[in-house]
Amino acid sequence: MNTLRDELRGIADEAPLVDLGARALRRAKHRRATTAILTVAAMVAIISGGTATLFTGGPLPDPIVLVPIPETVVPLPENNVQPLAGAYRHRCLPDDPTRCEGVEWRVFTTSGSTYRLTDAGTASPVAITPDGRRIAYWNAEQQTFNLRDLATGQTWRAPITVRKADMDGENFLRPSPDGLHLIYTRFGGGNLSQYSVLIDMQSGKTTKLNAAWFPVSIGTGGTPITLVRPFDDITRIWVLGHDPITIDDFTYEFSALHANGHTLAWIDKALDPNRSPMVQATGSIATVDAITGITSPPVPIQGIPTTSRLTRLGAWASPTEVTALTTSDSPTTPRQSTLYAIDIHTGKTRKLQTLNNTEASSTQPGVIT
Amino acid sequence: MDRYEGFQEFVHTRQQALMRTAYLLTGNAHLAEDLLQTVLTKVATRWPKLARDANIEAYARKALVNQHLSWRRRRHVELPTGTLPEHGRSHDETTVRRLALRQALAKLTPRQRTVLVLRFYEDRTEHETSQLMGCSLGTVKSQTHHALARLRALAPDLAELLADVQAEVRR
Question: Which BP terms in the Gene Ontology apply to this protein (chain B) (predicted)?
Fold first, then answer.
């Protein structure tokens, strides 16, 4: 049975799409200019003995607390977007107010706005630069990767073609801190071969990388490039241009290479054949000099709830702090993730951002997934 | 620094949600756009202060309601002119019901229409509705009661549609 609420929503659905920002701004500027002129005129009147008074704006109304109603999520504006705090795959509902279909990428900003990334195909991951200002994604129509600057709207297009069918398997995107260099790596599913390429988004130059290695990070300007290759109980780390080194741990969970060009952190793990799973995080963060291979003793992490576990590392938040993503493990509460900055010397943590279930399900700036 | 920094983003994100409410309040696409345009201009004019220390969304919604009520006091607003088709197999039930509702809504007083939109479209509590309309809780209750009674009288065929909200109001 239909209700009054349903019918009112039905009528509201007939509201035309509008784009009123620019017009409202023009009017406001005009009004401001007019008010300034009138203010001067009023002052002249007062000085000359007139009695008129002019108010250019009264106090704001008392604040009221309102619960926001579900909003219509609009496509990402071409420019002037605040830095991103993350991206996630949104599953469209049959009565979705945005009339989206299937699954689509959505991004949310540090100021709390959410947008549809309508030209990004969901076959590929998206990657956000650590400062949140640029996003790399696979453009389904162009069949290649784009880099977009959220503030200016400038977009760079990769000079390679990657079809949807080419993305069958595991795909990884690693942007440099400025986004202008991009590593795309595919560990093929089915008959596809492994493929890894470094793309200079400005010049269009591409360089093939050894596709047997997993990409971790790439520096501004395209170097240094850090790759890793886990084996049964060791992992090899290779900063291109240097000899690979080896650590006694099987892991993919590394931080980006530090700006000093040699420090790399990873989530410390221990193997115990008598428990399940046999490999578990120890609650410590470990570091290695990726050039010399010298490791530092793991440092116990402080300040993370016992119900949460460290799942990912990412870019460096300060010279001694690396970003880390934790996920709550409690079966009785909704899954929640938190971004921290962890000091690699003291293990002390600083909370950066709490993410809800949806937001936590995908990509955060600089986090290596 | 640009005094309007963040305004465009606010508009991009919220204008469609506000437009839906404006459309329900006015019942007319042009008037709704005009109404929202006026409100957004007001928001832009006060943007630096709003962005600093106010709930922008709440301000915009309150301004939307106030502007609508003050407009309706002095403006002649056209009512939907379509006539209701007679019931029959050739007419879609939903279309008939919706047109009947639109016509009935257009005949309500501005306050009655506003109270219905806020209570049953935006699902605001009576307290929130009173804040948005700048009236007492008692006025919200009585306006809601009168609005539903008038809808029933104007369009008896909508009785089924109103059943659940009437039960809600009686509680």
Answer: DNA-templated transcription initiation
